[in-house]
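Please describe what follows:
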Amino acid sequence: MSSGVRSLNANAEVMGSQAALFMNINAAKGLYDVMKTNLGPKGTIKMLVGGAGDIKLTKDGNVLLREMQIQNPTAVMIARAAVAQDDITGDGTTSTVLLIGELMKQAERYLSEGVHPRVISEGYEVAKRAAVEFLKEYKEDVGAEDRETLHCVARTSLRTKLREQLADQLTDAVVDAVLTIKKPDQPIDLHMVEIMTMRHKLSSDTKLIRGLVLDHGARHPDMPKIMENVFVLNCNISLEYEKSEVNSGFFYSSAEQREKLVAAERAVTDEKVQRIIQLKRQVCTDSNSSFLVVNQKGIDLQSLDLLAKEGIMALRRAKKRNMERLQLACGGLTINSVEELEPACLGKAGKVYEHILGEEKYTFVEDVANPTSCTILIKGPNDHTIAQLKDAVRDGLRAVKNCLDDEALVPGAGAFEVACAAHLREHTMKKVSGKSKIGIEAFAEALMGIPKILAENSGYDPQETVIALAEEQADGLCVGFDISSGLPNDPHLSGIYDNYIVKRQVLQSAPVIASQLLLVDEVLRAGIQMRR
């Protein structure tokens, strides 16, 4: 075919059958070698250095694949498939790359012995269907209110991204955040969990705020900084002087007339402020009550002064997303005109206080009654720590959400891979005749690569680990790898669980990509846009 292509385009670059195949295999193995040291809680961290010298420390596969500059087209294809995995399920990027790499490594062994790629590809397809069916039987149903199991899922996800002590501390915050925003018979919207970052103190000071943290504060020095038992008015009303939309002018012949004109200009705005003050006096009947105004539009200095004299804390030009979350956190309604003001439209918060950090002001709205929105406040001494925490928290939130959506889990620590490999060898291979058995055997061997890497990253001998796991599995036990002792262990006892949807997506995408790469017999550069 190469001669045919060259007769059409003399400048075409053609890579032959064997060269194309082994280019794909080497690209998959190269990406596999980069990513494999990241797998598991004992995985190592990569340092990414940008062109401007900026540094990023991470062991999150999704961040690595997005930030790394990959030039090999096959490696780019694998990276895109893995990133798509993260977009769909929130986790499993590293696992996808590793399984594709293992499948290509196992295929290389048989290809060098003269087996046709189509035979291996057909075996992979049979093994994929059998593995997905086995996963449906192997998964364990979970109750939506099983808080302890949700803790286990979040902890398993966070420990692969952060050190153990910090991951365990964040577990409570992540689980409580998802349960806070969960509404019966409605899909969980993780956008209702605000992730706020503050470069302050240590990463261990990261916490869940059952309310809201606004990234601005009051604009008047005399306004109260700490309030309790607070009524919250969420409004979208202009409390500042506005120029007329048409060209107009005022003419006066004396100082008295000028004063009247100025007073008339202020009268409209002052009337709106007085209506708010009247509502405050109506609801705050004792000295223990306070009043907070959060306005999406502006508040001018005279209006701020009037509100401050009444002991009202006012925030202006609040972001729309904060206004929506404030309504969900505190209750009440968003008011668009002063005619709608009434006690029923007010939200309620137990405590509101202002925190000043350098030149930045933050307003905390806490102790709300029935919040359906909340904030995870991430603290850290530097930008590297904050970025790492932010990525880990996002993955933890997705893991808990997936568990609640699927109402099912899969035992982790490599337990599924060991069980699935045994199932393929003992049951699936007996149902299949012909050369497809080669592909199924290669698939089973590739699955065992995951516990091998877990053992290698933890400092144990991978071959001994695989043999010990296979022996325990032969006795009919659910067995995974314990990274602390290096021995086979029941993941139920350690509380290690993986998401069902993540495993299913990995099993469905990785063999398809591997099969497509194996069936490439020529690489052509003969497009219209090719370089001259």
Q: What stands out?
A: The mean pLDDT is 80. The longest helix spans residues 255-283.
